[in-house]
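User: quick one, sequence for these tokens?
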């Protein structure tokens, strides 16, 4: 049985973390492959022990990046088994000088570059990966000491059973900050951001269940490097870090047959605290970027949203929804913001937590649809 880790990590601000255990836009990625024996790099240099490349895009968060790198220096596998690539979506904020020092003994390479967006930064990382496996991590996660070991074991098991290639998603419980608020708990325990809360039950008990590319979140995801490249790399037409990983994973699945498998024992702790207004701004941006996704990769967008969000019918629905629910959304915002003023333990019945989540969905959808309409209007104005 696969059991999602129930423990969380908690720390006060400034304190160290203590472990608790289809059609796409232009690409920048060359088509070179890693030799299947993984005994050589793409430049022919012998690398007998290198098995995994950890790839981390980053922008303007050097402190969190260095903390992640420090955790990677304490992995249970030999340091020769993996390398770390840091892709800086410029300008440099101290990463080039600080990253190698943050993980002593680990092969860390920093790939600086001008600001070009998440897709181009990820492609730079993928082009330079030298190992047969690539592990994508966010720069704001803190890996458990056995993270690399767990991903290597999972990928070896998949290969042994002849079920590859596969994308392996690990768990990413949220770091608990103090004071812990009801809003934080909703983020952690519901599908406000990720859908880990739905990855339970009979499907979770089956280690070979394919969760689909919608669950291929690159904050903790390993994949055979050649499969990642064979799909063409990441779409550079998507302007923000929103759907670029899901669109790439959709093509990896489509082009290589790779499934998305969940291994909850491969754990990172996600240190990203949302505020209510920031969350609503995120939903506005997700709606805006949905328009870009549908333009760059219509097949992916159709599968992800269940409809053509660029169609006249979809835009008419969004317009009617935003106009009809504007007054309700405005009223809901006050009670939504108040969730950040209530202690997390104020709700003891989990059914009430579910009710609060469902209560906020109208507000969430209002901002998403408003973002979609703004993007549509902006493109129309540019065309005119």
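Assistant:
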């Amino acid at each position: 049985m696969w059991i999602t880790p129930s423990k969380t990590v908690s720390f006060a601000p400034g304190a160290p973390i203590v472990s608790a255990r289809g059609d796409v836009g232009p690409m920048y990625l060359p088509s070179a492959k890693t030799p299947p024996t993984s005994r050589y790099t793409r430049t022919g240099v012998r690398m007998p022990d290198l098995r995994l490349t950890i790839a981390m895009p980053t922008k303007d968060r050097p402190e969190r990046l260095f903390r992640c790198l420090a955790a990677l220096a304490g992995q249970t596998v030999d340091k020769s088994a993996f390398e770390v690539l840091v892709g800086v979506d410029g300008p440099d904020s101290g990463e080039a000088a600080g990253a190698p020092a943050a993980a002593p003994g680990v092969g860390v390479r920093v790939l600086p570059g001008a600001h070009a967006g998440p897709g181009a930064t990820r492609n730079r990382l993928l082009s330079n990966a030298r190992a047969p496996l690539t592990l994508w991590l966010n720069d704001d996660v803190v890996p458990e000491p056995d993270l690399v070991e767990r991903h290597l074991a999972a990928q070896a098991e998949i290969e042994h059973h002849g079920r590859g290639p596969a994308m392996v998603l690990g768990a990413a419980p949220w770091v608990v900050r103090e004071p812990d608020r009801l809003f934080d708990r909703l983020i952690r325990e519901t599908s406000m951001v990720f859908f880990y809360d739905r990855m339970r039950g009979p499907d979770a008990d089956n280690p070979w269940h394919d969760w689909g590319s919608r669950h291929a979140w690159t904050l903790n995801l390993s994949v055979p490097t050649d499969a990642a490249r064979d799909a063409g790399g990441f779409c550079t037409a998507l302007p923000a870090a929103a759907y670029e990983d899901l669109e790439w994973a959709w093509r990896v699945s489509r082009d290589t047959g790779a499934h998305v498998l969940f291994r909850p024992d491969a754990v990172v702790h996600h240190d990203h605290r949302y505020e209510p207004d920031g969350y609503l701004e995120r939903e506005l941006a997700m709606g805006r970027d949905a328009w870009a996704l549908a333009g760059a990769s219509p097949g992916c967008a159709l599968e992800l949203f269940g409809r053509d969000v660029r169609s006249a019918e979809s835009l008419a629905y969004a317009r009617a929804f935003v106009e009809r629910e504007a007054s309700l959304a405005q009223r809901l915002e006050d009670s939504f913001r108040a969730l950040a003023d209530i202690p997390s333990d104020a709700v003891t019945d989990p059914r009430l937590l579910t009710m609060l989540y469902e209560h906020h969905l109208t507000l969430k959808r209002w901002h998403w649809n408003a973002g979609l309409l703004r993007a549509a209007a902006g493109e129309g104005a540019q065309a005119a």
